TrEMBL record:
One of its GO terms (molecular function) is transcription cis-regulatory region binding. The lineage of its organism: Bacteria, Pseudomonadati, Pseudomonadota, Alphaproteobacteria, Rhodobacterales. This is AraC family transcriptional regulator. It comes from the Bacteria. Keywords: DNA-binding. InterPro entries: AraC-type_N. The keyword DNA-binding applies. GO terms for cellular component: cytosol. Residues 54-226 form the HTH-type transcriptional regulator AraC-type N-terminal domain. Signal peptide: none annotated.
Length: 270
């Protein structure tokens, strides 16, 4: 099947047409599903309101609609929550509550694969249905596998939490085909080494390396042939189904201006 580029994360035709202009990276709002509720429960309504204000978006209003938002919205939200809550390890606290399965129709398609290798291949080849600007790759050398994720927002304020969350979601994807207590041989993060690294190893229960060029999970290639351990109600979702569901023009996503951002009600800080 030939899939049109318009089936992927939207970019702005108006921006792309300007000399030297580059459309901002986008991501499905499903990546933040449940996060606002967790922030409210953990830090209170005030912190959540400030996070929404910094993001210029009430994420909770659209988090179940599988629509796209600028990736900068996500980092701005997380950075402001970190600031207001005074919690530099926000990502570590949040990661246990993040799962790959919450990533909407794209996750359904990926997890419909029979083996871990099949799921990773699907994720790599169809990442554009979830995000633009990011990249994912699998390499296998002499029996050792490395699954890497390159985030477009690397280096932005708040990105450290995105990196940690990405690591957690990659591990959850792999554990969907292995066991819930499976651990990698090594996990790398593309963030500066923190003042205290112990909390990271305590959270992931494996060796951690910082200042890498990507978020990567290292593990034995033998695991790639493992079949899915969780029974998921994904049905027989095809790539054509994914394209139709992702870009059904009747879905209530809220208004998107030029493919760049959502118009949402004005936010108030109390």
């Amino acid at each position: 099947m030939n899939v049109s580029a318009t089936h992927f994360a939207p970019t702005s035709p108006s921006l792309a047409g300007r000399a030297g202009a580059v459309a901002p990276p986008m991501i499905s709002v499903a990546a933040l599903a449940g996060v606002p509720a967790w922030v409210r429960e953990t830090f209170g309504d005030g912190v959540l309101r400030h996070g929404n204000h910094a993001a210029a978006l009430d994420i909770e209003l659209i988090e179940d609609q599988d629509c796209f938002i600028p990736q900068a919205t996500m980092t701005s939200f997380l950075y402001e929550v970190e600031r207001r809550a005074g919690e530099e390890n926000l990502g570590l606290l949040l990661t246990p509550y993040l799962t790959f399965q919450t990533y909407g129709h794209w996750a359904d398609y990926v997890l419909a694969a029979e083996t871990l290798r099949g799921a990773i291949d699907r994720a790599v080849s169809t990442l554009g249905y979830h995000t633009s600007g990011d990249r994912m790759e699998l390499s296998v050398v002499r029996g050792a596998a490395r699954l890497s994720y390159y985030n477009a927002t690397r280096g932005r304020a708040g990105y450290a939490h995105v990196a940690v969350g990405t690591a957690g979601v990659l591990l959850d994807l792999i554990r969907s085909y292995l066991s819930s207590d499976w651990r990698p041989e090594l996990l790398t993060l593309d963030i500066l080494r923190p003042r205290k690294a112990a909390p990271f190893e305590d959270a992931f229960l494996c060796p951690i390396a910082f200042e890498a060029n990507a978020v990567s999970v290292f593990f034995g290639a033998r695991f790639l042939n493992h079949s899915r351990r969780r029974h998921l109600r994904t049905g027989h979702l095809t790539l054509e189904d994914l394209a139709r569901q992702r870009f059904n023009p009747t879905r209530p996503c809220g208004r998107i201006d030029s493919g760049i951002a959502f118009r949402v009600p004005a936010l108030r800080l109390v």
